[in-house]
Design brief:
It is built from 17 helices and nine strands. By secondary structure, it is of the alpha+beta class. It folds into two domains: about 350 residues, Orthogonal Bundle (Hydantoin permease), CATH 1.10.4160; about 80 residues, no CATH class. It is a multi-pass membrane protein.
């Protein structure tokens, strides 16, 4: 629980309040390494070959896609970095203190889905090791329940338990884990790529593996689709990147970590993936998308075990970083008094079993369908949060008000819910789901994240601006402000907003007309208190009543006659 007496216990616990900022760029870099170096990342990258693209086109799509992810990561990192709070809490700025349950629940459920998928992928590595060295277990593959074999359930349960143990140790243990998990994967993947090149001979490595013959226009279109799929894959951890950027010492450290962890790191990873997939065609006579299958085909027991254990470690790393942590913060936000970070994460882990994740990710087509559907939710959320922070609130956050359930708090809105954000989200998500479900629109489905960002941000910005403009025009009719209309106004009244933006008061509209012998005390959204009096520009003061809007800023006013 927070030591701040102004924080409502319904909105805060020790995991949600502002965190200590002690992460350097290397910690952010390691986070992205764990995110990139995973079974999911490999499978998604390799699945792009199914689009009919040549290896160099796949590589180009991967590079362009990750640069887009880097730009988006820098944008979404700042609100949490400056405030020190996770995604679930910073969402209160746009959605309201209670309305933020909606984006937190959506991201939490997505994290549960990905947690289950990554756990299943990791369990496949363990299953391959067991079957390779203990063939007597093969009969356990013949019986199944809910689409998964008996041995599959055993391996899934074991990996599930190992991840839960690491997660339960807390963020410090997770930080140490991701610092070494990512680099270890590089060593094994690079060794595998070099082995395939040595085995086949460089002159036998083919970088044109597709059996499809696409026209130039089709190649361009499929490359664009591939770029969109890369962004969609990262859209989940991208949305809640604030869960980690909150620990960054400053934004420069975060940006540096994003650069080395995304375009630089991912380019190297992409080159290795393309080399491995291309090498499997030359060595084994078929293109193998699954790294587990590639490792299992090597006729060397030690190499197989080393490779599979490395893949296993990498997948556990990303699962804890990208999914367990996210779900922990998101579900804890729903009931802070009862759900700690650990308890909420365990609820998510249990939920991941019931979604049968192996049915969501067992073919390239299903992979793309899953990504398109998730992007229909993630894109609009991303767009609304960015529009609110950068366009509406001018990159300012009132941290105390994020934890206040008082009606006068900046993020209380209408009974704790910002209806404009909710309406914008519902409209944008509905359009995205139609693109996935209606066959005639499915060619647009891979672009769901981009479409969602555009629609969510534009809907929200338009509704917010219209609301503010309406309030500003009619402000002098609001009796609660207690502003007398029959006094001589100041000829030039100025108000300092956020200590940065200087706004001129429209005195002719009756927005602020102080009588000659009284003052108006103005409380800014960032808790800067200003008193305006005749012939006096500004000085600090305290008190508040009512609410008025000037431009896009919320202002609270009290008069002392």
């Amino acid at each position: 629980m927070s030591d701040n007496p102004n924080y409502s216990p319904k909105l805060s616990n020790e995991d949600l309040i502002p965190a200590e900022k002690n992460w350097t760029w290397y910690n952010i870099f390691s986070f992205w390494m764990s995110d990139v170096h995973s079974m999911g990342g490999y499978v998604v990258a390799a699945s792009l070959f199914s689009l009919g693209l040549a290896s160099w086109q796949v590589l180009l799509a991967l590079l362009i896609g990750i640069v887009i992810v880097q730009v988006a990561a820098n944008l979404v990192a700042k609100p949490s970095q400056i405030s020190g709070v996770p995604y679930a809490v910073i969402s209160r700025q746009a959605f309201g203190i209670y309305g933020a349950y909606i984006p937190a629940l959506i991201r939490g459920l997505i994290a549960v889905s990905w947690y289950g998928i990554q756990t299943w992928l990791a369990s496949n590595a363990l299953m391959m090791i067991l079957l390779k060295f203990y063939p007597a277990l093969h009969p356990l593959t013949l019986t199944e329940f809910a689409g998964l074999s008996t041995i599959g359930w055993i391996c899934f349960g074991f990996i599930w338990a190992i991840q839960a143990l690491v997660f339960w140790k807390g963020m410090d243990t997770i930080k140490v884990f991701i610092d070494w998990a990512g680099p270890m994967v590089y060593v094994v993947m690079l060794a595998l790529a070099l082995w395939l090149v040595w085995k086949a001979g460089w002159h036998h490595i083919s970088f044109n593996l597709s059996d499809k013959h696409l026209s130039v226009n089709q190649q361009i279109m499929q490359t664009i689709v591939a770029i969109a799929l890369v962004v969609s894959y990262f859209s989940g951890p991208l949305l809640n990147f604030g869960d980690f950027s909150r620990y960054g010492k400053d934004m420069q450290q975060v940006k540096k970590g994003n650069f080395w962890g995304l375009p630089f790191n991912f380019l190297f990873f992409a080159i290795i993936v393309v080399m491995i997939v291309s090498g499997t065609f030359s060595v084994f006579g078929k293109m193998v998308h699954d790294p587990l299958e590639t490792v299992a085909m090597i006729d060397n027991g030690f190499v197989v075990v080393l490779g599979l254990l490395t893949v296993l470690t990498a997948t556990i790393g990303i699962n804890i970083v990208a999914n367990f942590v996210s779900a922990g913060f998101d579900f804890s936000n729903l009931a802070p008094r009862f759900l700690s970070f650990r308890r909420a994460g365990m609820i998510a882990a249990i939920g991941s079993i019931f979604i049968t994740p192996w049915n969501l990710f067992n073919s390239p087509e299903l992979i793309h369908y899953t990504l398109d559907t998730l992007a229909a939710f993630i894109g609009p959320l991303f767009g609304i949060l960015l529009a609110d922070f950068y366009l509406i609130n001018k990159q300012q956050v009132l941290v105390d008000d994020l934890f206040s359930d008082q009606p006068t708090a900046a993020y209380y809105y209408q009974k704790g819910i910002n209806r404009k954000a909710v309406v914008s989200l519902m409209a944008a998500v509905s359009i995205g789901l139609l693109l996935v479900l209606i066959p005639s629109f499915q060619f647009l489905a891979p672009f769901n994240w981009f479409i969602g960002v555009l629609l969510g941000s534009s809907f929200y910005y338009r509704l917010s601006r219209e609301s503010v403009a309406s309030k500003t025009r009619n402000i002098h009719h609001q009796q609660s402000l207690n502003i007398p209309q029959n006094h001589q106004c100041m000829q030039d009244g100025f108000l300092m907003l956020n200590d940065l933006d200087l706004w001129k008061l429209e005195t002719t509209a009756g927005l602020l007309c102080p009588p000659r012998d009284s003052q108006y005390h103005v409380l800014m959204k960032n808790k800067v208190l200003i008193s305006i009096a005749p012939n006096q520009r500004m000085r600090t003061h305290s008190s508040l009543i009512g609410r008025m809007y000037l431009g896009i800023q919320t202002i609270q006013v009290q008069t002392n006659a």
